[in-house]
Amino acid sequence: MTTTQAPPRRSAGPRATRWVGPTREYDLVKEFVIALGVVALLTAGLAVLFSSPDEKSVTLKDWATTAPNDFVATAVGELAGTTTSASYGPPYNTNGDGMSMGPIAPQKWAGVRIPVDSANDFVVGPLSRLPGNLAAAAAVARWKAATPDQQTAWATAYSDALEKVDGDPAKVPPGDYGPVPAMASTLLRMAQQGVLDSDLVSGEPPFYQLDYTRPILFLADSGFLDDLAGAQHLHGDQWGMMNETGNFPGQAWLWLYTFWYQIPPFTTSWSDNADLIIWTIMMILSLVLVLLPFIPGLRSIPRWIPLYKVIWRDYYRRAAGGGVGASGSGR
Q1: Nearest by Cα to 136 from 179, 196, 73, 75
Q2: In the prediction, which pLDDT does 286 show?
C-alpha cells in the first residue's frame, strides 16, 4: 500500500500578515527636500551671525608703520642675540636646548631642522641684498668686519640706550653703537616700503614664495604682535587657544587642553617646559580614553555608578512590570 505524505505546512511569514490599522500617505522625497532647505537656511544664518572673522593678515609693513620704535628695538635685539628666536634652540639654532621633561628632550634629540640665524637672516641679509644703498652697504661691511664680541657690544649698548628712552631712536644719546643705528633705520625703511616682507620669504624656486618661517619668527619677537594678541583676547591667561578673535565663539572643545595653562605649576616653575608637559599629559589622557574598555577597574565604573538606569528608566520600569517583549527590546 502506497501512502502519500502531505507537503510541510508553511509558517506564516511577514508577507502573510496584512496591516489592518490606520494608514496615511508619506512622501519621503518631500520631507528630505524640506529638511534640506531648513538646514541650509539655518547654516547660512548661523554662519552670518557666528562665523569666524576674516581678520587681515599682519605684515612686517604693518608692524613697521604702526610701531616703528618697537620694530627698531626688535631688530637691534636680533643683532644682540637677546630675542626669543635668537635664543630658542632647536629646530632653529643651537643657542638653547629647547623644552625638556627630565631626561626627555625631544627638541634637542631632533636637532636643528630649519636653520635660522636671527641676526643674519632678519637684519644683515636683507640689508646686504638692498641694491643701490651705499650707506647700508657700508654699515653692513663694517658689521661683518667686526669680531662677534664687538658686534654684540655694539648691539647691546644700543639696545640698552633704546630701553632708557622708551625705544625712541631720536632720543638716544651719542655712544659707541658702531653701524647698528644705521642698519636698524635702513631696515625700518625697507619694512615700511613693503620690501622686507618679500625679502624674508623664501621658496624653491624663489618665485614660489611659500616659506613664511622667517617673517613669522621676526614678527613673533616683537611686542607689537603680543599687543595685538592681547587686544583680541588671545593670550594664554585669556584662554586664547579656545577663543576666536574679537567677540566670536571659538574652539570650546579645547578647554581641557588650555585648562592646564591656567594653573600652577604650569604658570610658575614649569612654565618654560609647559608645552611639552601638557602635550604629554593630553596624550596620556587620550590613550586612557581609547583603552578604557580594556582597563580593569575603570571599565567597571558604569556598573558601580548605575547612571544608565536613570537614562533608560522607562525600559527598566517596563522590565520590572513585565512589559518588555521576549526579545528584550524596549525604549
Answers
A1: 179
A2: 95
DSSP 213: H
pLDDT tens digits along 15-50: 667 878 788 888 889 999 999 999 999 999 988 887
- How would you write 218-250 as a 3-class SS string? HHHCCHHHHHHHHHCCCCHHHCHHHCCCCCCCC
Per the structure block, which three cell numbers stand in for 19?
496591516
Taking a C-beta distance cutoff of 8 angstroms, is the pair 270, 277 a contact?
yes
Task: Dihedral sign for Cα 315, 316, 317, 322, please.
Answer: positive
The enclosing H or E element of 66 equals helix 60-66
Average pLDDT over residues 295-301: 89
**4 pLDDT more than 70:** no
With H, G, I as helix, E, B as strand and everything else as coil, classify residue 235.
coil
Q: Is the pTM of this model over 0.85?
A: no
| Distance of alpha carbon 264 from alpha carbon 268, whole angstroms | 6
